[in-house]
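Before any further analysis, backbone shapes were mapped to integers, which produced the following:

***
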Amino acid sequence: MYEFKLPSLRVKTVVHPEKKKDFTHRLAFVNLEDLLRSYDVTIWPDARENRAPALRIKTSAKLELDFKLDAHVTLLPRKDGKPGGKLVFQNLRQNLRKRGLQIESAASGEAGKDSALAIRLLKFDLPGPQTLAPVLLKAAATNSATGESSRSSFGPGGESPQHKALKEYVATHPLSIGLPAEDYQPTFEEELPSGDRLDVSFMGADWVAVEVKSRISTTADITRGMFQCVKYVAVMNAVQVCRGERQNARAILALQGTIPPELRSLRDQLRVDVRENVIPQEAP
């Protein structure tokens, strides 16, 4: 099973009337192939249909929709090991309901009223994790840090102006990473029993660690940041166990820029919460 986030997936309806009281629509996913290609996933639709991947649905009225949504999808290979499988849209049905489209049935076989919608794929090629991952991991382990966050992540040392500005901005603007300001209190450089120091620690309904990477961060820096988030959550949960508290720790990797395309698959595999384009108002 492979999970992906597809920002700005374009969905367009094409209607083909079959009966007087029934319309069969094709929900065409116009840019689906391009979005999946950014994860090095190639889908192979039926060669007899030279058109965008689509889902067939039936409605009692003609509809003309053309919109974009941030889709959450799961790629499910066939259980028998043969080529092909299903691409399941976790949030598509709810999104369509918001637009007044009540789905009566789906050609995918996902006919349950509250089930996720899915399209069947003839074949898809997945990226081999053994190809790119070792290169990224080796670079993260051997390349020296840029110096932006050596204090928190690599022991005693300095801190770049860019890292300091981003850290302070996140602490004073928690909404920039999706945390309500009135519910969370920030702390700088909180030390964990493992010897790690959190760039920013928020305590509220849950315990949130934030690792920040400024615009001078390299791909190796960001790779390290993702693994630091994984480590932080494990240690923080262990601390809560020792305190007799409920385990609710989580970590966020805040990037001043965007995540490099080659790290998107690793982000999803590690399930790291990455917030992009967190830009201080006055960044050096």
